[in-house]
Amino acid sequence: MSSELNNQRPLSPHLSIYKPIPTMVMSILHRVTGASLYFGTLLFVWWLFAAATNAAYFEWVNAFFGSLAGRFILFCYTWALMFHLLGGIRHLFWDTGRLFEKSTTTKLAWLTLAGSIILTILIWIVGYSVR
Prior knowledge:
This protein is about 80% helix and about 0% strand. By secondary structure, the chain is mostly helical.
């Protein structure tokens, strides 16, 4: 009897039947950047640990972060932080029941992406100019 009931139940929707829309992609990216911030924060803790250990180890860690790979990781971490921040601000507006119109949510999705890229570049420009 129970197997007959299971055969009559509808299939649960999944990603392969949905057309990706900007808000859906930004939601997924928001989760991915949130998870990647854990990794970046561990790198920051590593840097702090090196600063508290000794000068030679600190110089070695700084050399890693100063390398091309290290700078790329730091650049991606900066972008993930800015993207997640702007996505969080967008969600704060939604929590108040505002900005739920379809055209507005799509514009906010694109603004979140564009804003995160612009802020990341500006942060790096300022960082290099005060260096």
